[in-house]
Design goal:
Length: 245
Amino acid sequence: MPRYKLTIEYDGTGFVGWQRQENGMSVQQAIEEAIAAFAGEAPGIRGAGRTDAGVHATGQVAHVDLARDWDAEKVREATNAHLRPHAVAILSAERVADDFDARFSAVKRHYLYRIIDRRAPLALERHHAWHVRHRLDEGAMHAAAQGFLGKHDFTTFRASQCQAKSPVKTLDAFSVSREGDVISLTCSARSFLHNQVRSMVGTLKLVGEGKWTASDLKDALDAADRTRCGPVCPPDGLYLTRVDY
């Protein structure tokens, strides 16, 4: 059965998340139903990351096995045609080796979190960024974020329902920058724990507000204690931007 790698963009607003669930429409379900509509079969797809409800993607990756040897461009175009009106798009489709696995073949995942710190409410950016009504110190946030780099026990920044076998992860990069009222927090690692990025960003906001120091953040990380985490930020500002193989 030919295997196809799909690169996917979606607006997570209104979805229950990536993974198929009983309580509403997921991104995975929308794509699987679109493929079934043109291919005449009901294949399951595997994604590189199980994004939560409200989380977006500009570079999610999935793979699917189809019984027929379709042209890759046909897979992309036909799937997109049947995805309407969902806010999901297949950016590219390509034939890959049978041993390619969107989840387990990945060597690095990249995330972006967007904060807009201004007094006025969000109109165009509603559901696509975290609105903070007071000015944050992005320089202090960037400096503190460097304490996350390297191999650590990230229990403090792990959801209580996380199913990962180990809380130990290696964070390769974390940067915080500003353009106007938009603060961009980008981080990269081979894999992340459930809610790890949102937990780290929520804690960094405390640094940006002057309520925590970089030392406070490092102490919380070293404590490996979920109760030491800052508030988990909302899903609206989080994007899975790229997966490397």
